[in-house]
Amino acid sequence: MACLKSLEDGKRGVQVGDSILVRKYRPPQEAADESETEPEATPSDIAASSTLKATAAAFVPKPKAPKPLAAPETPVEEYEGVVEIVPYTLNELHVKLDHGDVMELTGDDWRIDRLANRITFTRQIESLYELLEPNDPTKKAVCNTNPVFRQILTAGFQRSAKEVADDLSAAIGALSVRAPEDQSDGADGNTQNGIVAKEHRFNICANPPWHPGCEMVDVEAVPALCRGLINPTGDPNAPGPYDRVVDSVTRTHGLNASQRDAMKAALERRLTLIQGPPGTGKTHTSVAIVRGMLEIGHGPVLCTSDSNTAVDNMVEGLAKAGVNVIRLGRPEAVRPDLARYQIENAIPPGATKHEAYESQLRAVRYAQAICATCSGAGSDFLDRINFSAVMLDEASQVTEPMSLVPLANGCQQLVLVGDHKQLPPTVVSRDAELAGMTLSLFDRLTRAGVKPYLLDTQFRMHPAISYFPSVSFYDGLVKSGTPASERPAPKGFAWPVPSVPIAFCPTPEDALEKNDNLSYSNKVEAERVMEILLGVLNAGELRPCHVGIVTPYAAQVKLIRSMLRTRGVRTGVDRETGEAGIEVSSVDGYQGREKELMIVSTVRANNLNTIGFVADARRCNVTLTRARRGVIVVGHASTLSKDRRTWGPWVRWVRNAGLALGVKGRREDMAAVRAIEADVNAAPASRLVPAPRGLVPRGFR
User: Fold this and answer.
1) Which of the residues 150, 439, 445, 487 has the least number of beta carbons within 10 Å of its own beta carbon?
2) Phi, psi of 296 (to 5 degrees)
3) Same domain for 333 and 190
4) CA separation, residue 182 to residues 175, 176, 185, 195, 357 (Å)
């Protein structure tokens, strides 16, 4: 089966404990013919006439799963169960069915689908229900999450009584009905030609039946609700009760002024948005905030994110800071060097199932920080534990329903760390995207008037590399804290300006794109990328793991990878040394990543001068901010320059500054780009507010 073959290739197939759906297909024409001549078969009849051997006397079938989009076949048998055994021979699976005894499934016509998405969907629905109906008497447990979060989440969705009454009157009240014949000639002026206008009156409840403290509010009230009661003005320079803790953590972690302000706000506010542009130290600031939360007694802290990579980064940072951290999640999804922080290590040898559960629960209760994905935060294991403080990393990449899952565990204080100027959440369904699923909670709160705290100093890139993104996407507010001397240009490439590691390599005018109706590719650009890459590798300064190739289209990714294999350049991980090779990926794959040198292939080249979604400002921002020491862009100059939003201004900037190959720049622009240097030093922030007199009691928010 395909799932077993994927295990042989080292990919994630099915594992023990996975919920799966087993289905057998047959062509729709065959199914239609049989449906005309034969009566509908029962599950037992199906099992007897196929390769499925049933041992159950009675079998209760599950409801049919939704038909996949554009499915060429029709399922005739389907069973839902849990994987119990995956033999090392990978030639069979042992599955415990939800209904009935174990059955033997043989043959090549069976399909196995993991139900992880169904579990995730169920947890989102349950969390949404918990937050919207916190005092429902029919529920077994009461949601301890602060009801103010319900008001924040539902603000703007309510309709006033007058609007409801007006809509009802417009839809129904204007209808006319024919009057009885004995009233058609009456003297009443409301009757005309046998038609009487009927006036409808509606009684709208002036007080909506919400529980006290859960009333819906207008969007204008959201910023005040997020500030809370400790610092209602939101002024970072105002004295606060936790300033001593803020100063102590600032000195310990070496925070700059913007990072200090963000941490101070996170400790004082009910809900805090922290915007971290590329390279500004979001994870470093998040770790400092968790330390501050623990110092003021708001632990344990639930640290979540949508991806396992972001969660692992949090675990690594917290562990280095001396925080007692526990990692929840599938063992195969956790980095090997972080395996010692997994919850499974708390189980003593030879423990029974009950003892193992109690040991894990005890470890979670005594931990200072619990790290899990957003979906993992909704597991049944955490139902008995309340987390007053919740931190959501990469919040701008999480869909809003998914971001609600961690909030349902008694959240009293929420910190969202992200950047709505980078990529939005990934949504596969086009209908869901058009309906607004790509709008994250971080972005929606920003639009509602909640001002994020900007981390304004980046330490990743050469100052010249960060200059254009800062001006174009952040209104020039992001400064550079790394001197240019610490980011020298990589060897092996003829940089137009040796002191500025930025280059634009224009392709010939006739080097047009190729469209295969699914994606775009450009062979000339791919060959130019190979030429640049081999020159850099032959110089010997950078290893393959230090170089990344990014392109917006999957067809171009496939083309470049095939060229790398043809030239003998390693792209995967070396099994002997464990060192990664050249990484070729899309823009989405490089979100949150960095390399010493980035080579960009923009692909689009046509006579219509259109570049499609490549013009998206968020994608352009991510593309240009992955490199530490150098970025080389290969593209079609005339096509890119026609874009008015992103790539057009960038092409004009590099041409005027003399950073385009074969193009002589203007003298004043070349002098200006050479003069780009670090704006600030990396010294820790000094005290901004006087020392406090006391602490606010816990829960006073």
Assistant:
1) 439
2) -95, 5
3) no
4) 21, 17, 7, 12, 80
Residue 679, in any domain of the structure: no
What is the pLDDT at residue 657? 94
Whole-angstrom distance, CA of residue 390 vs CA of residue 413: 6
Judge contact between 417 and 393, C-beta under 8 A: yes
Higher pLDDT, 542 or 574: 542
Cβ proximity of 390 and 305 under 8 Å = no
- Tell me, yes or no, whether 531 and 413 share the same domain: no
Bridge partners for 191 per DSSP: 196
> Residue 222 gets which letter from DSSP?
H
How confident is residue 659, by pLDDT bands cut at 50, 70 and 90? very high
Q: Is 404 in the same domain as 437? A: yes
- Judgement on whether residues 187 and 329 belong to the same structural domain of the protein: no
Q: Where are the beta strands (DSSP E) in 118-213?
A: 176-178, 191-192, 195-197
Note whether 500 and 464 are within 8 A (CB): yes
Range of the domain at 307: 219-455
Contact indicator for 456, 429 with CB cutoff of 8 Å? no
Give the model's pLDDT for residue 617. Answer: 92
Q: H or E segment at 354?
A: helix 353-366
In sequence order, what are the residues at sequence separation of 6 or more whose Cβ sits closer than 8 angstroms to the Cβ of residue 355? Answer: 347, 348
Q: Which amino acid is at 644?
A: R
Cα-Cα-Cα-Cα dihedral sign, residues 579, 585, 588, 593? positive
- Is residue 127 in a domain? no
| Preceding omega of 300 cis (within 30 degrees of 0) | yes
Percent of the chain with pLDDT over 90: 45
Residue with tokens 């720049």: 665
- DSSP class of 348: P
Helix (H, G, I), strand (E, B) or coil at 161: helix
Query: How many domains in the chain?
Result: 4
Average pLDDT over residues 471-487: 92
